[in-house]
């Protein structure tokens, strides 16, 4: 089962569209060991409410080698829990370097994972990521319209739509329900979701911005297909730090986000 099939299957079985983000900030902890233990506790406790888990690599890279070991432990724990892993790294570079990124994050122990990628260097630079994801059963999520207020500086004037059309072109080469090239569209842009859903009919949409960035579940239904699949809505701080380091509060937050997303689709 590839990444798109795994998250779609999990959405149907567990009735959840929530992507739990794990963005551990060192300043919230006594030390790296404490950060590791809490992050793994949140992962395990919220897994029943999650369609997938999304570690943001920046937070692990910030801790140096120790952080990368923690990231590997988080990915291994997710795999043990049967949770698809979406690595939020926003990689992108000239082709030969993109190939190395793809090898590092989409093959070997990360085979079957998904990776966020930045198309800013041109569509040709997506090829190594897409080819590697297809070969390893993984996926890529290309930045289309990011959740931050400043996205319009560079993503306006039809740029997001051009990227969306390239995703649709790439996905046309694949069979099946959802294909291996997904799209990042901020949950903070609810007015645009219906148009992007139509423009990229076979792309899984990743919608970051729920909770801490102000997006609410109630407006996100247009991102989904008629069967209630096709999109993953992510919340990181709103789950991991729902009430300080209180893990039961993280569980409650994940359950509430899941329920609110389901209510939006009802
Ligand atoms: O457009 C984007 C793409 C990625 N992100 C990432 O998602 C999480 C959001 O964290 P919250 O705490 O839920 O706000 C974070 O890792 C971002 O780097 C995004 O926010 N917007």
Molecular structure report:
The structure is a single chain. With 266 residues, the chain is of the alpha/beta class. It has a single domain (3-250), classed as TIM Barrel. It is 44% helix and 15% strand. It has an eight-stranded parallel sheet with strand order 2-1-8-7-6-5-4-3. It is globular. The mean pLDDT is 98. The site of ligand LLZGTKA7 has 18 residues, from strand 8 and helix 10.
Summarize the structure.
The protein has 266 residues and is of the alpha/beta class. The protein has one domain (3-250): Aldolase class I (TIM Barrel). The chain contains eleven helices and eight strands.
Features:
single chain, 266 residues, alpha/beta, TIM Barrel, 11 helices, 44% helix, globular, binds the ligand O=c1ccn([C@@H]2O[C@H](COP(=O)(O)O)[C@@H](O)[C@H]2O)c(=O)[nH]1, decarboxylase, Aldolase_TIM, Orotidine 5'-phosphate decarboxylase
Bound molecules: the ligand O=c1ccn([C@@H]2O[C@H](COP(=O)(O)O)[C@@H](O)[C@H]2O)c(=O)[nH]1
Low-confidence stretches: none
The rounded Rg comes to 17 Å
Strand content: 15-25%
Shape by Cα distribution: globular
| Helix-strand string | HEHEHHEHEHEHHEHEEHH
Helix content: 40-55%
Average the pLDDT over all residues and give the rounded result: 98
- Main-sheet strand order equals 2-1-8-7-6-5-4-3
Assigned CATH architecture = Alpha-Beta Barrel
> Main sheet, how many strands, which sense, barrel?
8 strands, parallel
Distance between the termini: 28 Å
Q: How many structural units, i.e. domains?
A: 1
**DSSP summary: helix tally:** 11
Count of distinct strands? 8
CATH homologous superfamily heading: Aldolase class I
CATH fold assignment: TIM Barrel
> What is the subunit arrangement here?
single chain
């Amino acid at each position: 089962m590839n990444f798109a099939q795994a998250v779609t299957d999990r959405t149907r079985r567990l009735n959840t569209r929530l992507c739990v983000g794990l963005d551990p900030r060192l300043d919230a902890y006594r030390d790296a060991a404490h950060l590791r233990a809490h992050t793994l506790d949140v992962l395990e406790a919220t897994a029943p409410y999650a369609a997938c888990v999304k570690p943001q690599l920046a937070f692990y890279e910030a801790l140096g080698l120790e952080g990368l070991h923690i990231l590997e432990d988080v990915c291994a724990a997710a795999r043990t829990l049967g949770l698809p892993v979406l690595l939020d790294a926003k990689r992108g570079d000239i082709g030969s370097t993109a190939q190395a990124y793809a090898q590092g994050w989409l093959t070997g122990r990360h085979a079957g994972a998904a990776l966020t990628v930045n198309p800013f260097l041109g569509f040709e630079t997506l090829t190594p990521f897409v080819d590697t994801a297809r070969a390893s059963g993984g996926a890529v999520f290309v930045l289309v319209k990011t959740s931050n207020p400043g996205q319009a500086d560079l993503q306006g004037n039809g740029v997001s739509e051009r990227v969306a059309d390239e995703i649709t072109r790439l996905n046309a080469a694949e069979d099946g329900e959802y294909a291996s090239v997904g799209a990042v569209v901020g949950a903070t842009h609810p007015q645009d979701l219906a148009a992007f859903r139509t423009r990229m009919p076979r792309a899984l949409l990743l919608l970051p911005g729920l909770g801490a960035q102000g997006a609410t579940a109630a407006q996100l239904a247009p991102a989904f297909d008629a069967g209630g699949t096709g999109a993953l809505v992510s919340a990181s701080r709103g789950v991991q730090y729902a009430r300080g380091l209180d893990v039961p509060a993280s569980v409650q937050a994940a359950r509430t986000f899941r329920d609110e997303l389901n209510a939006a689709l009802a």
